Amino acid sequence: MKCFTSVYILLILIISCSSDQVNVTMIPNEGNVIVSTFDDGAMREISPIEMVSEMKMGWNLGNSLDVEGENETVWGNPVTTRQMIDKVAERGFNTIRVPVTWRFHQGPAPNYIIEKSWLDRVEEVVNYGRANNMYVIINVHHDDPWIIPTYPKGDEVKARLSKLWTQVANRFKNYSDYVIFETLNEPRYEDSPEEWTGGTAEGRDMVNQYHKTALDAIRATGGNNSLRKLMISTYAASTLPIAMNALVIPNNDQNTIVSLHSYFPFPFTLEGTDATWGTDEDKAQLTAEMDRIKSKFVDNGKAVVLGEWSSGNQNNFEDRLAHATFYANSAANRGISSVWWDNGNSGVSNDGLAIFDRRTLSWPFVEIADVIVAAYE
Predict the structure, then answer these.
(1) Which region is the signal sequence (predicted)?
(2) CA 200 to chain CA centroid, nearest Å
(3) Segment 278-302 mean pLDDT
(4) Torsion sign, CA atoms 356, 93, 130, 215
(5) Do 258 and 306 meet the contact criterion of CB atoms below 8 Å apart?
(6) What pLDDT score does 220 carry?
(7) What whole-number distance in Å separates Cα of residue 291 and Cα of residue 334?
(8) Which residues have a catalytic role annotated?
């Protein structure tokens, strides 16, 4: 009898969850790809629109695995634990977006090898979400310094991006369709005059090319990745018409979801120059923003996830609550999933975007969380 050790031996991985420990059985299978028993590896016959209707509302694990440094705590957030994600799931959120920065853990050309310990850590956090039966989105986040959308940089970026996604896709190859890949976050030419205004024709073209490079690399790994849902963003994930109109879905791939970010209106949500929201005019403008998105994509059969939205704490709780209520209901009523950007900071500042306290495992703005969940129920 032949010995298929790599297929049948069970490995026990101990995942630390704050003061708790959870025993997770990890089962090697074909190709020595490890799959958590939190995830059955099933791929359903489900369309992107049907999937988005199941994803509903989500929460971003912002400023943790996506920091610009080697340690996930460098921007002040504590180490992510299973208990944190349990609490988010218990509140009613059924999607978690896990932004990931790879450049501090990726080796040099030509192979651009990702550190095994970093892949292990990303998978550990993914399993926190899957243990709660949540949809989990992982992406390429603060890697913009090398993902430069210009023709001269194109070949270099494509080579590295292809290697990156090949490795990530192989690591999660046998996970179910509850794991979603977002090929790029807010792809743009940093510090250029057009960075937040839809980019240049060259920039928009290169962003489309980079999405195709990532998608082709993922699909080439085969298995579940042949059908896995992939989120594809506009230039800078912008909802400006010039950016939305320029988006090209790679290969007309039918298992794709459009990824957009809409901090609308910007003076209220992020800029911190307007602390009030809720007039009839405010509502009309936000309605028009949602209608533009629906008209461009949803009405044409394309599923949409608003991967980031939120509002800064300007000591204006009632206005934030009114905005969140209207925003979440507007998205839900149009069949659009929305994922709150939580950066861990709940203090009074335009950057105070957190509604969950990761240290105390409490909800300082529980009412905002609850109206988001209620909108999708």
Answers:
(1) 1-20
(2) 25
(3) 98
(4) negative
(5) no
(6) 98
(7) 8
(8) 186, 308
As a dihedral over the C-alpha atoms of residue 227, residue 31, residue 16, residue 22, rounded to 10 degrees, the angle is 80
Q: Which residues pair with 260 in a beta bridge?
A: 306
CA 171 to chain centre: 17
| pLDDT at 238 exceeding the cut of 70 | yes
Side chain identity at residue 36, one-letter code: S
Length of the chain: 377
Residue 36 clears pLDDT 80, i.e. is over it: no
CA–CA gap between residue 271 and residue 353 (Å, rounded): 12
3-state secondary structure string across the chain: CCCCHHHHCCEEEEEEECCEEEEEEEEECHHHCEEECCCCCCCCCCCHHHHHHHHCEEEECCCCCCCCCCCCCCCCCCCCCHHHHHHHHHHCCCEEEECCCCHHHECCCCCCCECHHHHHHHHHHHHHHHCCCCEEEEECCCCCCCCCCCCCCHHHHHHHHHHHHHHHHHHCCCCCCCEEEECCCCCCCCCCCCCCCCCCHHHHHHHHHHHHHHHHHHHHCCHHHHCCCEEEECHHHCCCHHHHHHCCCHHHCCCEEEEEECCCCHHHHHHCCCCCCCCHHHHHHHHHHHHHHHHHCHHHCCCEEEEEECCCECCCHHHHHHHHHHHHHHHHHCCCEEEECCCCCCCCECCCCCCCECCCCECCCHHHHHHHHHHHC
Is the distance from CB of 332 to CB of 287 less than 8 angstroms?
no
Q: How many CB atoms lie within 10 A of CB 344?
A: 19
Superfamily of domain 41-376: Glycosidases (3.20.20.80)
Angle at 169 between CA 164 and CA 173, to 5 degrees: 160
Identify whether the C-beta of residue 331 lies closer than 8 Å to the C-beta of residue 338.
yes
What pLDDT, in 10s, does the model give residues 197-232? 999 999 999 999 999 999 999 999 999 999 999 999
Q: Which tens digit of pLDDT belongs to each residue from 303-331?
A: 999 999 999 999 999 999 999 999 999 99
50 with 370: CB under 8 angstroms? no
Percent of the chain at pLDDT exceeding 90: 90
